[in-house]
Design brief:
73 residues, alpha+beta, two-stranded antiparallel sheet, 19% strand, binds zinc ion
């Protein structure tokens, strides 16, 4: 599981996009805005909740995949 996303910088409101690698984010890595150099990341005490949310999302995807069984004739 490795994917990237980007968010708009919440600090300088310049419209700068901060590239975030989700798996690194969940390790507590912080990412910096290319414009104002502000660091964004998950608070250490929220990492558990964030991991759980991502895990539930993965479970949901698995469920969806598993539900696509071929029809029996
Ligand atoms: Zn910024």
């Amino acid at each position: 599981m490795s994917y990237t996303t980007s968010i708009k910088c919440p600090v300088c409101e310049s419209g700068s996009k901060i590239e975030i690698e989700v798996s690194a984010l969940l390790q507590g890595v912080q990412f910096s805005c290319p414009t104002c150099k502000s660091q964004v990341g998950i608070q250490e005490d929220s990492i558990g909740a964030a991991r759980k949310a991502v895990g539930e999302f993965e479970n949901l995807k698995n469920k969806f995949t598993n539900s696509q069984k071929p029809f029996k004739s």
